Amino acid sequence: MMVEIKAQPFAFPTRPDQLALIVIDMQRDFAEPGGFGASLGNDVSRVAKIVPDVKRLLQGFRDAGLPVIHTMECHKPDLSDLPPAKRDRGKPSLRIGDDGPMGRILIAGEAGTAILPELAPIDGEIVVEKPGKGAFYATELGDVLKAKGISQLVFAGVTTEVCVQTTMREANDRGYECLLAEEATESYFPEFKEAAIAMIRAQGAIVGWTAHVDDILEVIGHA
């Protein structure tokens, strides 16, 4: 049955049996003091503040029996999947692969790379480890979505203008309809989040739609 979620730039028509939630990179290194995000000089409290809304969204999808996918930006311990251009960019005090307060930064299996405990995956939820900004690059995400019959994606996570928007653009090019949960995504720079949201829904949802968490939950809770 087709239903509509109140959204911008216009209502998002959805079939909940083809809908999945993707939570992008809600990792300790990006949200906690002492992590990689903080080493770049960012205010990680901006990321931490969206945790309650991401948690509500997660619970809503779980209660509705809809698929949930988590992504983690991370690299192999030998750094064979980390291009020098990515490692060297930005000249932070700590770089990917270096020893940090929570283990080697953005390396698979390290404490800082883990998803925040409040948002941790539960049994049956898929975790995609991605070496790039977009979640489709060098991952199994496309195959996972195809196997589950998913055609529409709701997005949460960080950062809005980088990994979230990049993945939405990748998904859009692959034919998925994309909806961003506004309160469940964040940037270290408020003006970047605002600009990303405007770009996503410009020109008649050229990349996708945006909606409030409550409006998403209301529809999936009655689907």
From TrEMBL:
InterPro entries: Isochorismatase-like_dom, Isochorismatase-like_hydrls, Isochorismatase-like_sf. One of its GO terms (molecular function) is hydrolase activity. Signal peptide: none annotated. It comes from Rhizobium tibeticum. It is an enzyme of class 3 (hydrolase). The lineage of its organism: Bacteria, Pseudomonadati, Pseudomonadota, Alphaproteobacteria, Hyphomicrobiales. Its EC number is 3.5.1.110. This is Nicotinamidase-related amidase. Keywords: Hydrolase. The keyword Hydrolase applies.
